[in-house]
Amino acid sequence: MSEHSSTPSQDNEPAAGIEIGISTFLEATPDPETGERISHAERLRRAVEEIVVADQAGLDVYGVGEHHRPDYACSAPAVVLAAAAPLTKRIRLTSAVTVLSSDDPVRVYQQFATLDGISNGRAEIMAGRGSFIESFPLFGCKLEDYDELFNEKLELLLEVCRNEIVTWRGGHRPAIDGRGVYPRAVQNPLPVWIATGGNPESAVRAGMLGLPVCFAIIGGMPERFAPLVELYKRAAVQAGHDVSKLQIATHSHGFVADTTEEADEKFYLPTQAQMNQIGRERGWPPYTRETYDAARSLRGALYVGDPEYVAEKIVLLHRNLGVTRFFLHVNVGTMPHKDVLRAIELLGTRVAPIVRKELARGTGRAGDAE
């Protein structure tokens, strides 16, 4: 393992002020063309390979989301990330997200502190309330306590991150009276991000606490999140935090191929299938080709195309929102593994260098970098 070890997080600073990486929910949906469904075990093994490829391609971060339903394979992000940790050298490893409302903050810390030790300081926690509700009845949590649970458990998680010996009392968990929490993370404190789908209260909460924030932008125009970014910054200033040190990430669906035509063709059907599945559960209108094409436009929230086009969209996002980290969510529905690996490789070896070069020289046209 020692030959793969990395120095802790301070040596993993992104070039030109932006980190670029992958997020995934480990989709295990039926193939839209054959109807065959990948097993959870196979999807988990593929995820480890994806993380290794992302690290080799020079990407900065890889995030795995927590879900408790049959169309996603991962209910334990820290375990998946730990499997890849000794096989990687520098990539940061994060949940995307940890559904903190229905989990125990002490166990969350212990799991990610363990990951931090195995990876030598590359673990992060992205805490959120979750966009699905399956974990609430599964773990005996009440949906009517949705907001209260998150606020209380975030408070405890941050306390555990700061202090080895914890004394704490709340309304939804037994008190802790001077107990130690182990193992301790390599990073002190272990980084905690707040994830939000666009809730103003979540942005304000993250700002007041001085925590990095990640906005999930999967529809509309990303530039419309600018007021939320301002809310976040304003709350941070009012709480006495240094705005220059705030970190802002976004998470958006997308896919990179050697040509835009290839990316368009390969990504549409699996995306349509998964979005329609979720849409039926939530009462959304059908996901159509028109919806997809509009989202692929320069100002849309879907990052699908060749490396130059995807880079151009990331540069625009950076200019509009001042993001310091960008997650490309690959894949939205089941896709051939080789295509996913190629997309990850292109994001790291082609897209990221273009973006960083453009941001370093302050121009607006990503395609001019080559």
General description of the model:
This protein is α/β, with parallel strands linked by helices and 370 residues long. It is 42% helix and 15% strand. The chain is built from eleven helices and twelve strands. The strands form two sheets. Strands 1-2-3-5-8-9-10-12 form an eight-stranded parallel barrel, surrounded by eight helices. It is globular and about 60 Å long. The two termini are 37 Å apart.
The outline comes out as globular
Strand percent estimate: 15-25%
Spatial extent as radius of gyration: 20 Å
> Which regions have little confidence, pLDDT < 50, spanning 5+ residues?
1-16, 364-370
Helix content: 40-55%
The largest pleated sheet is described as:
8 strands, parallel, barrel
Q: How many β-strand stretches?
A: 12
Chain-averaged pLDDT: 92
Number of helices: 11
End-to-end Cα distance = 37 Å
Enumerate the strands of the largest sheet in spatial order, edge to edge or round the barrel.
1-2-3-5-8-9-10-12
| Helix-strand category | alpha/beta
The topology string of helices and strands comes to EHEHEEHEHHEEEHEHEHHEHEH
The oligomeric state of the chains shown is single chain
